[in-house]
From TrEMBL:
Gene (name only): galE
Domain NAD-dependent epimerase/dehydratase: 3-252
Cofactor requirement: NAD(+)
Name of the molecule in the record: UDP-glucose 4-epimerase
Source organism of the structure: Methylosinus trichosporium (strain ATCC 35070 / NCIMB 11131 / UNIQEM 75 / OB3b)
Pfam families assigned to the protein according to its UniProt record, in alphabetical order: Epimerase (PF01370)
Pathway: Carbohydrate metabolism; galactose metabolism
């Protein structure tokens, strides 16, 4: 049984690659290295540089490696960018995912685990938000992911493809062993950006919106540590292998922190009072979104190990320092 990990050289995908390798799984990584790095993939894990929308390449990989499961991470993920370039997001996240699904069905892949997003909920009416809440994405990014969820549901019904959709909340932190982390220089993740500001790698940190209907006026998010998220995928794979039903699950801790609370934590852990600039809202940002996670806990027995904002921030800072000393390639 071999697993194809698309986007396996990226931030979350590289942690998944490590999780699978540590578990003794046989895997192959496909990544176009547009935002990922070859050095993020262990030398003993086969990696192919290419586009997951390349039908001929993907079919060859699936057949030659006898792939029976796909864990699909490869995607564009920046909400404001999706507002400016919706067609680019629908091409990469939706149209190419349709091609990947078609190739999976045609070559007899049995299981598909999809990296979705809390952005499919839009601006929820209440928190924590459950998987059965109204789906009303407010950005092309969220819509592009929701379309893939629909395709998976239909493909499963028509072709017997078993799947798990994991709706991520805000992913943060780095591998506690220092093997991987968020390496993209221009990433927009709050904790990474704040860590860069604390280390002098950015002149300041901007806060987008201070007039939201939240306790301090800034957006509230549920921050999940990246290794906990990777382990949720392995739990999902084991669930499907054991005959479990196809499922949609939130991936979050069930509580949130505001932007200002996160900034204060980064300042405290780093010991640096870096400049913060207050700015207007960004398009596509909901005021608050926090995961209800009872389903994933019950279905997979998933239990977080790193539900600690201070520890997550410390991991992010340590990884940024490592990147300064040894830039990724």
């Amino acid at each position: 049984m071999t697993i194809l990990v698309t986007g396996g050289a990226g931030y979350i995908g590289s942690h998944m690659t490590l999780e699978l390798r540590d578990a003794g799984e046989k895997l192959v990584v496909l990544d176009d290295l547009s935002t990922g790095f070859r050095s993020a993939v262990p030398a003993d894990v086969p990696m192919i540089v290419g586009d997951f929308g390349d039908d001929e390449l993907v079919r060859d990989i699936l057949v030659y490696n006898q792939i029976d499961s796909i864990i699909h991470f490869a995607a564009k993920i920046v909400v404001p960018e999706s507002v400016a370039d919706p067609l680019g997001y629908y091409l990469n996240n939706t149209a190419k995912a349709r091609s990947l699904l078609a190739n999976a069905v045609q070559t007899g892949v049995k299981r598909f685990i999809f990296s979705s997003t809390a952005a499919v909920y839009g601006d929820p009416q209440s928190n924590p938000v459950t998987e059965d809440a109204v789906l009303a994405p407010v950005s092309p990014y969220g819509r592009s992911k929701l379309m893939v969820e629909w395709m998976l549901e239909d493909a499963s019904r028509a072709h017997g493809l078993d799947y798990v959709v994991l709706r991520y909340f805000n992913v943060a932190g780095a591998d506690p062993l220092g093997r991987s982390g968020q390496s993209t220089p221009n990433a927009t993740h709050l904790i990474k950006v704040a860590a860069q500001a604390a280390l002098g790698l950015r002149p300041k940190l901007q806060v987008f919106g201070t007039d939201y209907a939240t306790p301090d006026g800034t957006c509230v998010r549920d921050y999940i540590q990246v290794n906990d998220l990777a382990r949720a995928h392995l739990d999902a794979l084991r669930h499907l292998r054991s005959g479990g039903a196809s499922l949609v699950c939130n991936c979050g801790y069930g509580h949130g922190f505001s932007v200002l609370e996160v900034i204060e934590m980064v300042k405290r852990v780093s010991g640096v009072d870096f400049p913060v600039e207050l700015a207007g809202r960004r398009p596509g940002d909901p005021a608050a979104i926090v995961a209800a996670n009872e389903r994933i806990r019950a279905a997979f027995g998933w239990t977080p190990r790193y539900d600690d904002l201070e520890a997550i921030v410390r991991q992010a800072l340590d990884w940024e320092r490592r990147l300064v000393e040894q830039p990724p390639v």
